[in-house]
């Protein structure tokens, strides 16, 4: 269905379709269900297959962007192009310019400190790939952004650079964005609902920032714990070398500690690669959303200023001038778009965080699940074996000169040790 | 004259009758073994007949020997005779207070009196191998508590030892409040103690010690080194693990704050935060249990010192023997030279007699007589020293074998309990994170 042809509100009022802003807001109002069902989804985008390119001037990574679609806006049902980070960055800027009333998803951080982070390490590239994939998927799921022509070109053009250069020259496209360049108007007061959103985003960013710091600290502590464990395990082995009867249990403990080290390393890596980046993305998201709120304030401020100017002129005009009318229109569109996007954002955020935190819990559960398996395997200890309190342990020493191993340990343990007698 | 040789200490000890032999008391070097008593059978061990506990610890202030006020901790020792079950009666509990220095006195007495026994060690005097949460302060209640347990353990070990449990001084330590110190000092055990310098000297100069003791000494050195290392690293590991758990507590707070601005997500976040608090708090119990494990290892760290003490004693006795034999040999040689007139070895006497003329036959006769007396004495001494040496090796080795089995049993148990602790810790972790996951799923 092509909404752009027949445009009228449900009450019959014709709608001005000359500006893209109105048509997009109309789309929002007419679309009953913002969240696209999987069945009705007609656009699928994936980012994968990172490849390193070594050129004379620079070395960089490209990613394969695959598109599958039935939309009429696309000439072909399938596309496969290669894009680098720069291209994603360009796309995002273009979206911000051309869809200023919408919340544009964030990109992973642009700059990485050379020497600290290896831009070409597998882990870094994979983390980035996931973030870029998420970026495109969020756009794909957006009922307005997914129809953006820059997005279309990004997904389909063989030579994106040529299009980029072309875009710079054309000023007609600039016409729209000029309208939203701030005229330096100051808003007196933010409407309550947007003030609430602003406050929410402030607190939200703050809390995420704290969580990020906590997660980093935990990883740091875990790695320091790991360092000590790596020294700890081998000492048991050394001791085992001194002993005869005790060498097996001592080697057993050493092996178990070694296993713990491996599991811990995995946990820390997972948290670094999967947990922290998503957290940081949301912090960036909140930042860009706050900027959109500010832009909205600007649009409202401009309208109110112009309205005031007209009122002060005290001209006896029955009709409000068209440019003030357009300002009012812009404010209403902006507000509507923003509210709709906020609702969508809240839903997605809730799902994303549910998944993220459950993932964190899962990783920890997996880490702890490895322990009992390894220890039980090495010591033949049954589940539910009760640790004796210290008093009982000491009383057992009264019979120290009379080893009665079988009386103290459940059958399976004594069998482990009896075979060495 | 037959040449006297020290009997090689590596010879297998013969089967000995378990008689009561009266050894002569000697005042010089080498503490003698106390009168031979048959080792107590298992059933007769004091530990079986008497319940012993160190039940309390109390801070006291008093005046010490130099009339200076000091603060110390006193420990309450409670004992009760074990009645047979059929009687159904409970004997009354007797109790008395002792301080650490008295325990030390007891142990010193036992070490000197029973040098062939691996005497159980006392818990450490000062807190060592601490990690940041524990303080190194002797007055710290945790330290005092662990010391109380260690002292009780010491008493139980002595009471279950087949030889030591029969000692009267030990029994009095447990039962006689007043005058015990005087009683110990009256035994004169301090005089029997070997000087450190002598022991060191013997270690370096002994020529033919029993190989088993040399190996054992080497083993105890290595054991001490490896357990020290283990305890040091363990303390660091505990420190780090504490940090990991405690930082998670911060999640609790921030989730709670975050939940305040959320609508649907709020409840899930809040309850998950509670589980993070539980997780952070769980480390305290985990590490306390581990502290007991560390104490078990520490006991054997100190036991290594006791083992070494027995080896040192053997070296001292062996050296003593070698010196006595050497002395005897040289005296016999002197005697021979005087009798035959030949000078085999250079001696000042020989030189002077060459220069200033030989001594008169009467003088020579007198000298020979003195020497012959000394030689006879020497031979008797050598014989008894040899016997002593063999006795010592036999009894010491028997106790060492007993000790080895005890060590293997105890440490095996400690390692298993360590494994069980680790499993339990993992299970707690799984539980907490599973609970948190469920809360997250409800977000």
TrEMBL record, chain A:
Belongs to the sorting nexin family. CDD domains: PX_SNX7_30_like. Pfam families: PX. Keywords: Protein transport, Transport. SUPFAM superfamilies: BAR/IMD domain-like, PX domain. GO terms for cellular component: early endosome; phagophore assembly site. One of its GO terms (biological process) is protein transport. GO terms for molecular function: phosphatidylinositol binding. The lineage of its organism: Eukaryota, Metazoa, Chordata, Craniata, Vertebrata. This is Sorting nexin-30. It comes from Pipra filicauda. Residues 41-162 form the PX domain. InterPro entries: AH/BAR_dom_sf, PX_dom, PX_dom_sf. Residues 1-26 are annotated as: Disordered.
Automatic annotation (TrEMBL), chain B:
Belongs to the sorting nexin family. GO terms for biological process: positive regulation of autophagosome assembly; protein transport. It comes from Pipra filicauda. Keywords: Protein transport, Transport. The keyword Transmembrane helix does not apply. Residues 14-30 have a biased composition (Acidic residues). This is Sorting nexin-4 isoform X2. One of its GO terms (cellular component) is early endosome membrane. The gene is SNX4.
